[in-house]
From TrEMBL:
PANTHER family: CYSTATHIONINE GAMMA-LYASE, TRANS-SULFURATION ENZYME FAMILY MEMBER. This is Cystathionine gamma-synthase. The lineage of its organism: Bacteria, Bacillati, Actinomycetota, Actinomycetes, Propionibacteriales. Belongs to the trans-sulfuration enzymes family. The keyword DNA-binding does not apply. It comes from the Bacteria. The modification N6-(pyridoxal phosphate)lysine is found at residue 199. GO terms for cellular component: cytoplasm. GO terms for molecular function: cystathionine gamma-lyase activity; cystathionine gamma-synthase activity; pyridoxal phosphate binding. GO terms for biological process: cysteine biosynthetic process via cystathionine; transsulfuration. The keyword Transferase applies.
């Protein structure tokens, strides 16, 4: 019988040597060989593999229902290796229209020089996706980010995977905002799922990391090869911190979702707020699809205060519990103005978020305190 999500999140191997319940941090770069080429347990050099990282990868693979998972030093490092593994020169990456700024910059400023192109597609429009897929050169990929950051848009993973399958186009899903607890892209037909584990997976704003999981054996082999070849190896301490965070992912996400829902409802009712983006609101354009595709609606809320960019800047400097900082998914509430912060690299492009948008990463504090803090800051 398969264990449930929260049980699997806690299942890490005890140390066979000492019985230590929590796997140790193998803070080593290299491993003794008993004779030339005779390795103990297959470990040779920590760029290739490290037991602390292996334990994390097994834990993450289990949570995604994947045969393979690879851990990376950051979400963007994972994105870079995944794109190298899947997209061929001459191919293009079909991006959503509010893709994470760093993903856009990677394609626009780094991969463009290697012959990998990109195009922006409205992924809420399945006809547009079908047309883009039909015209995509060999070696192309669809890059989904769902929900998106910061506009909270959703793409229909199952429908898009079905469209793409007929054309041999890989479907890569950045599922960072949902975490494996809220959404399982591989079960919906995605080729690979990626997370910035910096966010909900680690969950405590104290470490950077990334992960890619897949059931495609050939892709997994290529990911493992490239991770070693380009040196995209996370350190054991970072792997250990992420593994510890993952154990409480389910309980944290339940609280993030409940608090975000309360915040979204309060903002919706607030006279000094013009627009609220939260998938849990029945009127949100993505609500119905999110209800089908996700377990719950997540911990991110964005909104546009009355008074434009100046009002957004005022809110940003007036909260006490929502700390003005980039990043998301930690236990403490954070706030940012994406146009000038996380998404500055998309400024002046069709991917730029509205300049008066405030993004909240709603933490696990007491909801009443968060509501009062926002109410005070809105004035
Ligand atoms: C943060 C983030 C990334 C990049 O991850 P890093 O760990 O910062 O490199 C990618 N995608 C999304 C949706 C993110 O929020």
């Amino acid at each position: 019988m398969a264990y449930g999500f929260n049980t699997r999140a806690l299942r890490v191997p005890h140390d066979p040597l000492t019985g230590s319940v929590v796997p140790p941090i193998h803070q080593t770069s290299t491993y003794v060989q008993d004779a030339v080429g005779t390795l103990r347990g297959g470990y040779e050099y920590s760029r290739v593999a490290n037991p602390t990282r292996t334990a994390l990868q097994d834990q993450l693979a289990s949570l995604e229902g994947a045969a393979h998972a690879y851990a990376f030093p950051s979400g963007l490092s994972a994105t870079d290796v995944l794109l190298r593994a899947v997209v061929r020169p001459g191919g293009r990456v079909l991006l959503p229209d509010d893709v994470y700024g760093g993903t856009y910059r990677l394609l626009d400023k780094v991969h463009a020089g290697t012959g990998i192109g990109y195009a922006v597609v409205n992924q809420r429009d399945l006809d547009a996706v079908a047309a883009a897929v039909a015209q995509a050169p060999a070696g192309s990929a669809l890059w989904l980010e769902t929900p998106t950051n910061p506009m909270m848009r959703v793409a229909d993973i199952a429908a898009i995977a079905e469209l793409a399958a007929g054309h041999g186009v890989a479907v890569l899903v950045d599922s960072t905002m949902a975490s494996p607890y809220l959404q399982q892209p591989l079960a919906l037909g995605a080729t690979a799922v990626l997370h910035s584990s910096t966010k909900y997976l680690a969950g405590h704003s104290d470490v950077l990391g990334g992960v890619v999981a897949t059931n495609d054996d050939a892709l997994a082999e290529q990911l493992g090869f490239l991770a070693n070849a380009v040196g995209a190896a996370p350190g054991p301490m970072d792997a250990w911190l992420i593994s510890r965070g993952v154990k409480t992912l389910g309980v944290r996400m339940d609280r993030h979702c409940a608090n975000a829902r309360a915040v979204a409802q309060m903002l919706l009712d607030h006279p000094r707020v013009e627009r609220v983006h939260y998938l849990g609101l029945p009127d949100d354009p993505g609500h119905e699809l999110a209800a089908r595709q996700m377990r719950n609606f997540g911990g991110m809320v964005s909104f546009r205060p009355a008074g434009g960019a100046q009002a957004a800047a005022n809110v940003a400097k007036s909260t006490e519990l929502f700390t003005l900082a980039e990043s998301l998914g930690g236990v403490e509430s954070l706030l940012c103005v994406p146009a000038q912060m996380t998404h500055a690299s998309a400024q002046g492009t069709e991917l730029a978020p509205p300049d008066d948008l405030v993004r909240l990463s709603v933490g696990i504090e007491d909801a009443d305190d968060l509501l009062a803090d926002l109410d005070r800051a809105l004035g």
